[in-house]
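Reminder to self: tokens first, then the designed residues, so the page reads top to bottom the way the pipeline ran.
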């Protein structure tokens, strides 16, 4: 399983990122879903985004993910300017032992146990 960051979904929506045809290998969380949705400029684009979202598995952000997010924020918010969204994305990947596909490696590269691709 590979966790898709919002930037990968944005590229995919613009036909810039080639995802393997078996979309069951990819997932993301409701945090990524929300980031993706708020980027819609109009109703037509919102419908397109919702169609894309429906193609993939969404992983729930359970309490253990949120607890680890708090730990990550305490450790990295001041030193690396970690955002709440990035902390939840990283925590989800760590809890579920999933590789993160992102173009924004600088936002995550300082987390030693997080596996990055892309």
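Designed residues (118 positions):
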């Amino acid at each position: 399983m590979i966790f898709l960051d919002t930037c990968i979904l944005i590229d995919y929506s613009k036909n810039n990122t080639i995802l393997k045809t078996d979309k069951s290998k990819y997932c993301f969380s409701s945090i990524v879903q929300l980031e993706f949705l708020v980027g819609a400029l109009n109703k037509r684009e919102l419908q397109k985004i919702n169609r894309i979202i429906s193609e993939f598995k969404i992983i729930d952000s359970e309490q253990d993910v949120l607890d680890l997010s708090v730990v990550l924020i305490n450790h990295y918010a001041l030193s690396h300017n970690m955002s709440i969204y990035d902390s939840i994305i990283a925590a989800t990947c760590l809890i579920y032992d999933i590789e993160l596909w992102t173009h924004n490696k600088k936002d995550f590269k300082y987390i030693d146990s997080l596996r990055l691709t892309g």
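The chain has a mean pLDDT of 92.
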